[in-house]
Amino acid sequence: MNSLRPPRFILSVLIMGLLLSAAVLHADQAPLQFSVSCGGRRLLPAHGTAAGVWFYVDRESGTQLLLLGHREVPEGWRMAGVLREGVRVRIELNRQGGSPAGLDAEVEGDWLLESGPGVLILEGRNDFASGRIRRFKSGEGLVNLEPVRRPFSLGPVESSPSLDPVVFEALVEWDWRMQDGIGTPREARTYAEAVARLLPRIDRLVDAAIEDGGMSASVLRDAWSAMRQATEEGVVDEGVWLRLHRFRRELLIGRLPFDIPELLFVKHVPSVMSHQLTQLYGYCARPGGGLFSLRQPGRETRVRELTPEGLPAGSFLTPELSHDAERLYFAYCPVVVAPASWDFDDRTAHLRYHLYEMSLQTGAIRQLTSGDTDNFSPVIAPDGGILYCSTQRGGYHRCGRGPCFVYTLSRMEPGGEHPRVISFHETHEWDPSILNDGRVIYTRWDYVDRNAVLYQQLWVSHPDGGNARIFFGNNTWNPTGIWEARAIPGSNRVMATAGPHHGMSAGSIILVDPSVGVDGNAPLRRLTPDVRFPESEAPLAFGPTALGYDYDTPVTQYWQSPMLEPWRVTEPTEEELRWPGSCYKSPWPLTEELFLVSYSFDRLVGEPGPNIPNMFGIYFADAHGNKELIYRDPAISSLWARPLRMRSRPPAVVTAKDVGMGDEGTFFVSDVAESWPRLPEDRPIEALRIIE
Prior knowledge:
The protein is of the alpha+beta class and 692 residues long. It is globular, with a radius of gyration of 26 Å.
């Protein structure tokens, strides 16, 4: 069975507590190089992360080993995994310039251990033997480790197999530790300090769950009151902290407003240059990933690959489902080797994203776009047509080097017929999606005759391109831009990502209420206040070059917005100090306070460098600071998660027009003084300039 074991098993077997700070450490604290082999085959870990996750897998034997720790916290290293019976894993340390140190470990579970000078050998007692190492030792002290890293590569990033439940349980618990500051390199906290922050968050979660009406209010209230009282009256230790986190996880997953039997998501390597424009060009794509689904999210660890067999390795983007959930739409680029830089030349000109349709019943695919254009972000309109973003209009952006081809809102018929541009705009547009009233919302870069950094905000139009108008933010400087906007079921508000200009779409998740206003701070609610708005509030890391970038590459420069709102948040949060540059991406709203989202402990870096390939995992989160890891592939980012289920079709909205007028039209202005910003009342308007 591949489901998560019940909490009692986790409590009795999986506890891998932090060691006391008084533990004996080596005097020099020098990290020891750490390598792993299995059956004589050297295993290299997935790309390292700021959260201290190193994952080893041997596909031939089915071995999975999860190494967790930070070299700044020698007492925190631990390991969990699964071995086949008779499979031997060799863990070897070697201090450069000297003889190997003696090595030992405390092992739990079904592993046999042999130790010697500089080496540990693990062997499974039975088939698929699970085990854990809760501390590594050398002599009388603890060992500070430095894993041998996977060399930087421009080749495809290979996805991990489905994580064994033991590995995933360890990853979930480690995620709790990293969220709370238990054993972190910065802003570390005790269990008591972590619980003090956790209790009010669970209070709000309990209140929200009772308000939902999905469970007995009295039973839930009594259970939580008893647990809270016992926590406040007793000694707060690791066991108490774990019980609270398990209670929160069950409660948050239980709050889902409807059954989600399966999640659709994409495994994706972020582009070779982190910028709002280049993140979506085929000539900047990096290979790796595909289309996947996760059954029983929050309960299961098994993933199902949906990637069509007929497509070679490449890069996948922005999935969309038909309303009946029988057809899947996605963007795909056949990149095999990532470019060393973001140059458009003879080596990269053939790399384009094109749209495909796939039957989820048969797996049959059909290519919908072709030619020398990039096409992505497909959206099924209420009338069955397909909206998407495309470079087919031609033209380039005005600033910086390039070429950065302009992509705007486009449309085609259900079978790919009659592809056409439906937006008159001359600069970039992103992330179309359908509102509950049938209109399309999207991000537009509206920087004509003003600062180029600040004006990537939300617009709406009819799905045929008519009646385009501002939705929010065309005169707002904070956030720098808003991307990935989506309608919330049963609400006129939208959920979106407040992101930077000089980086890919990621940052903080917000709620936008257009009934409050179309500009300023009042219409915005921060759903993830632990992350400030990048570039307009929190500095955005100036990225290094693409070659050799790693999670701990030093940052020496930052991007900062040139114009600052007086109401911006100026002080970094505890989480930001702990995980500088941490960020969210691709929210999918379930209610106004509950959503799916991808999250990264790793720093978001901007132009001109890339981000690491495996920064994002998928979470359930709420507006009260609670988030629970649902899925993370330690090797590659998981993005754009959404329920794989049917959904209702919004009303079809069309623009009223007289087809007999052809390309001509009649335009009128009812009040020339009605504008934003408001015009001075003491300066009357005497003439209008009309530009064709």
